[in-house]
Design a protein that fits this description.
Elements (H helix, E strand, L loop, with lengths): L1 H7 L31 E7 L3 H16 L2 E3 L8 E6 L4 H15 L1 H4 L4 E6 H5 L4 H4 L5 E3 L7 H6 L30 E5 L1 E2 L10 H5 L3 E2 L2 H13 L4 E5 L15 H11 L4 E4 L9 H9 L6 E3 L7 H7 L8 H11 L4 E8 L6 H12 L5 E6 L17 H24 L5 E10 L2 E9 L10 E6 L11 E10 L2 E11 L10
Parallel strand pairs: 1-2, 1-3, 3-4, 4-5, 6-9, 9-10, 11-12, 12-13, 16-18
Antiparallel strand pairs: 7-8, 14-15, 14-17, 15-16, 17-18
């Protein structure tokens, strides 16, 4: 731990991951508090995945309820909270670089307290206090609700290296959305029981534990009442939802959410192959408000590699489960991720994965190079692949996917799609962007809106529009707005 933190904590020399403050992941909302309850200004920076974002939004709720004004520029904050990722070495480096960057505001700004939370703390909680003296307080995963105590300096030291995480948020906890006002993530379970040899998450996040169906539905209904149009369900292992409670499963949850009509789109992310069955697929296909979309990380196609990864084989192997989904309901769009360069991976294994990609099953594919993480079984496996070779294999597979995506996207030209408007294009205010049903936020392509039969000035983020697709731009579609379903006035998200 000591040598790793010391090396990774060295300045990277490039632009700071936190140089733009928290504007990268907290939207400009009215976070002011009553003067009589004002405790100071707090900024929350979220690193890592959407599941981390949910935890950050709970901390935002706790802080605001405790009298802190939430600001979107860390240089103006009295208290800064960094919710870290500790999944991969690259994420650890980003987290520590960010911590050191923000710590400088103690000298150059008004910052008086720096708090670090999240997976980095959980992974290294036995040593992290000594290694990062710049940090005033550390919050383990179970301490999310104690963030105001940490900000006030009244938190007792709770870092127990032997403790197993147990925290699970629910709809009764305060939460303020840091995302765009029309879309939100909802975490339906925490932790994971799967044995994947490359993954440190079970050690960081603990065993699988599900929220009740009623709690999830209440939260989604509350979000819908506040103007959210799209909810993305997240978990470490979404398809195991409910198995620990021996209660309603994921299909039953989706049926309840669909019946509630609380939001227009419910999307499921981070699905594990085991749990993909007839009931789940039939529910997705039959539901009016559940996206015909499956995010299904398969990790590889070669059975030799999958065996070493301890990933599902047999009826749940990538080829079998993919064919099952396509044959049962071909209208369901599949997204997946693969790991390349796993120990012992051969040229034949890479060729097998390349062929699997070229078969064109997936609307979107993410490809990552293998990272040997200390504490995981694969870290000490023989046959480790050189970094340059991993990168070359990734480029090869990305080229294969690029050809598939280009063909798939061109099939939409001349058709009309229902699109959720996101807002102005990041490069110009003259264009709007949106997403179709098969495009999840942040990980898939977008629809660029460059023309309209109606006044684009009347189209607002959160509106649904009918778009005629006119061309393809890389991984994105370009289209003309033909009509708007309705314009909705979206109020500020408040207590959930």
């Amino acid at each position: 731990m000591k040598s790793k933190l010391s090396i990774i904590g060295e300045p990277s020399g490039g632009e700071s991951c936190c140089s733009s403050g928290v504007s990268m992941n907290v939207q400009e909302h009215d976070y002011a508090v009553e003067p009589q309850s004002f405790q100071g200004r707090a900024a929350v920076i979220t690193l890592g995945c959407a599941k981390n974002q949910v935890d950050s939004e709970v901390m935002l709720g706790v802080l605001k309820n405790s009298g802190y004004e939430i600001v979107t520029d860390v240089s103006t904050a009295d208290v800064a909270i960094i919710n870290t990722c500790g999944f991969l070495e690259s994420a650890i480096k980003e987290s520590i670089d960010c911590i050191l960057d923000v710590a400088e505001y103690k000298q150059s700004g008004r910052l008086r307290k720096l708090i670090v939370a999240g997976c980095l703390v959980e992974r290294y909680k036995g040593d992290i206090k000594a290694e990062l003296p710049e940090v005033d307080e550390f919050l383990a995963i179970d301490d999310v609700l104690k963030v105001s105590e940490a900000a006030a300096g009244t938190l007792r030291n709770t870092l127990d290296s032997a403790a197993r995480p147990y925290f699970l948020y629910d709809d009764n906890m305060p939460r303020y959305l840091a995302s765009k006002r029309h879309t939100a993530y909802v975490k339906i379970s925490e932790g994971c029981n799967r044995p994947c040899t490359f993954c440190i998450i079970p050690k960081i996040r603990g065993g699988m534990r599900s929220r009740t169906l009623e709690s999830v539905v209440r939260e989604v209904v509350s979000l819908g009442e506040q103007g959210v149009r799209e909810v993305n369900l997240v978990a470490q292992d979404l398809t195991s939802y409910g198995t620990d409670l021996k209660g309603p499963n994921l299909a039953k949850l989706l049926q309840s959410l669909d019946a509630s009509k609380a939001v227009d789109w419910v999307r499921i992310l981070y699905s594990y192959p085991i749990g993909i069955d007839e009931e789940l697929l039939d529910t997705i296909a039959a539901s009016s408000h559940v996206c015909k979309y499956l995010d299904l990380p398969l990790q590889h196609s070669s059975e030799a590699v999958l065996k070493e990864m301890k990933r599902p084989l047999g009826r749940y192997s990538p080829r079998k489960v993919t064919e099952f989904i396509k044959s049962r309901h071909p209208s369901i769009h599949m997204r997946t991720t693969f790991i390349v360069g796993f120990p012992g991976e051969t040229e034949a294994d890479v060729a097998d994965l390349e062929q699997f990609i070229l078969e064109g099953h997936f609307s979107s594919v993410g490809i990552f190079t293998y990272s040997p993480e200390p504490g995981t079984p694969s870290h000490d496996m023989t046959g480790q692949v050189a970094e340059e070779e991993k990168k070359a294999r990734r480029e090869r597979l990305m080229l294969a996917q690029q050809s598939v995506v280009e063909k798939r996207l061109h099939s939409y030209v001349g058709t009309q799609l229902r699109v959720l408007v996101e807002g102005e294009h990041e490069e110009t205010e003259l264009l709007l962007t949106g997403r179709a049903e098969f495009q999840a936020p942040d990980v898939d392509g977008i629809v660029i809106l460059n023309d309209s039969d109606c006044d684009l000035a009347t189209v607002q983020p959160g509106d649904f529009v009918q778009v005629e697709i006119t061309e393809v731009a890389g991984y994105d579609l370009v289209g003309k707005v033909k009509s708007a379903e309705r314009t909705q006035s979206i109020e500020l998200h408040e207590h959930i």
